[in-house]
Amino acid sequence: MKKLSVIFTLLAALVVVVSCSDVKRNPSRNYMPDMAYSRAVETYSDHSGLNNDGINYDARNVKGTVSRNEDVIYQTPADTTGLYASEAVMVNPLPALDSTGKVEAERLFLINCGICHGTKLDGNGPLYKGGEGPFPAKPAAFLGDAKYESMSEGTMFHAITYGKNLMGSYASQLTPKQRWMVIHYIKDKQAEAKGGSEAAASAPAAAPKADSTAKK
Amino acid sequence: MFAFCQLTVIFLHPIPDIFSTLSTDILRNMNYQSRIAKTSIFSILLLLVISFQNLKAQDGKALFQANCASCHAVNKVLTGPALAGVEERVPDKKLLHDWIRNNAKVLASGNKYFNDLKAAYNNTPMSTFEALSDADIDAILKYVSTPVKEEAKTTPAGGEGEEKGSDNSLLFGILSLILAVITLILLQVNSNLKKLSDDKEGVPAFEPVPFYRNKTYITLFMLVLFVIGGYYIIQGAIGLGRNKNYQPEQPIFYSHKVHAGTNQINCLYCHGGAQLGKQANIPSLNICMNCHMAINEYSDKSEKLYREDGTEVNGTAEIQKLYSYTGWDPKQRKYANEPKPIEWVRIHNLPDHVYFNHSQHVVAGKQACQTCHGEIQKENEVYQFADLSMGWCINCHRETKVQFTNNKFYSIYEKFHDQMKDSIKNKDGEMIANPHKLDSITVETIGGTECQKCHY
Which of A 161-190 lie inside 8 A of B, CB atoms? Predict the structure, then answer.
């Protein structure tokens, strides 16, 4: 009888040990939690009860809020016609990029745009991968597509700010100044490519046709 | 060039299969003499036909991708409608061609179907394609109406179970246990032999004491218990409030492996705050929707997703959860419902008496995210990689070398930078070998371990 209970206890202990997962789903205990978890109102804490405590809190910015150091303030509302007639005449307010500006603009492009529009600006980023990637629509090819080579800077700016077709708004990721820097970068690259291939490629408008003949 | 490669791959692929099945058929039915000649002629013909058809199909695909794919997909509603079955919806071939070439003219002519269609898609105007020939449009329509053949799914053979890194501590534990048992046996043998020899020599033996009342054994046991117990008590006390390996379940199964690994999205795309200030922000939902407005399913062809406990995750259902939070209605393609915030479970938390700034480490310190967060691009569920203890911080500050090159932030430490140079100018302006040359400057050298840098 005594032996049996010993065996039983050992078996139970074994089951407990085996069933213990090493995935840590709960946080550790704290000895003095008052400093570990802030009492002050912090980012990413629960703000739902603040208004009940008599604190006026709104998660959203007051309309028209401009961030500090924002030297380009853009107020044009979203275009609902899709024609971009009034925005197309806007010109880039920034002077041409110097060498550090170019590096920074390239960095911004690669982080925010390259994922769809491709690191080579060919509209074939890792999300599209020639139709194999998860993104179902073909992103704009800034190089090799006459439509985007002739697109005005203002239209581009508006498209980055408010999104266009399946592209979302990048207003929360890029400041207006950064948007203009990225546009400078795209236009510089387009000018570079044009300067290099002007002599070689004769008809850029018939790009898809030229492609298919090249295959044969 | 790329398109050409792709073409050759598709072009070459189906031929060997058909070729071989066909030749075996012929082998059975024909007599020997004419067999070789006929087979070869037949196969050449077949090859021509197949290649021609493939070329046509490929042509349509290339044209589709070049002209239509930015707004249309074959089976999915994007900016414009899905194009499969367009010829059934618009039986008039001429009208369809006119529409594709210049939709503004068709709209102006007052065609009801197309005007309604435009209204149904938020009045987004379609681009015009005057340059497309009739043959081009036919090729596109043919591509669009041909159902895409599902390629046989290749699942990697075996390798389903995850290989866990072999843990040596178990091996060492077993080994020391065996050694301990051997020692005990040897001790027992020794005492028995001693007793035997004592008996032989006529020395009176003591009354044998059972091992659990033997004072030596009890002392040894107590010592071992003290060391092991003390170790665990101290470890537990140090571990209070530390959360290394904390891996909570999140409201949405968001896989960093899929996003940052497979799809190569830069960390700063979503967590841009890491380069701007103290917090590496949790992205707001509009950033998710930049892509997920269009990506509304997790493809079956992709790698299957599993939670840490081994249960499978339905990626498409997780994307649907995102829609329920943002209020996005994928059918109407707009934000139709009331949005609500996702309450992600916070993993990394520093106590209130510590100041930590992301931008200081990412921009000035030029550290990769992985230094502190581990190989996040390989994690399906995020866990806390570092224990975020003070010892861990200090250790890194002692070992990490300051990166002075192209780093304006540390320009005030010019003196240190000069000390790293091989040669310096002396008082007369001549270059001499640097007598105080330092190989590198660590963060500690420039004050990275001073208390008030992080506690103030």
Answer: 163, 165-170, 172-173
H-helix or E-strand spanning residue B432: strand B431-433
Across the range B355-380, mean pLDDT stands at 91
Strand partners, A167: A164
Per CB-CB distance under 8 Å, the chain A contacts of B169 are none
Q: What does the alpha-carbon distance between residue A126 and residue B262 come to, in Å, rounded to a whole number? A: 9
Distance CA B9, CA B51 (A): 12
Q: Where are the domains of chain A?
A: 99-196
Tell the CATH topology of A99-196. Answer: Cytochrome Bc1 Complex; Chain D, domain 2 (1.10.760)
Does residue B80 surpass a pLDDT of 90? no
Residue type, B171: L
* Full DSSP string of B293-319: TT--S--TTSPPEE-TTS-EE-HHHHH
If you write DSSP's letter for every residue of B329-373 in order, what string do you get? ETTTTEE-S------PPP-----TT----HHIIIIIS---HHHHH
Q: Which residues of B touch A207 (CB under 8 A)?
A: 66
Whether the CB of A70 is below 8 Å from some CB of chain B: the reply is: no
Q: Which of B72, B263, B354 to mutate to test the interface with A (most CBs of A within 10 A)?
A: B263
Residue B84: its pLDDT value, please? 78
Residue B119 in tokens: 């209204």
Element (H, E) at B233: helix B215-238
Say what the pTM is: 0.71
Least confident of B27-36, B63-72, B113-122, B152-161: B152-161
Distance between CA atoms of A37 and A33, rounded to whole angstroms?
6
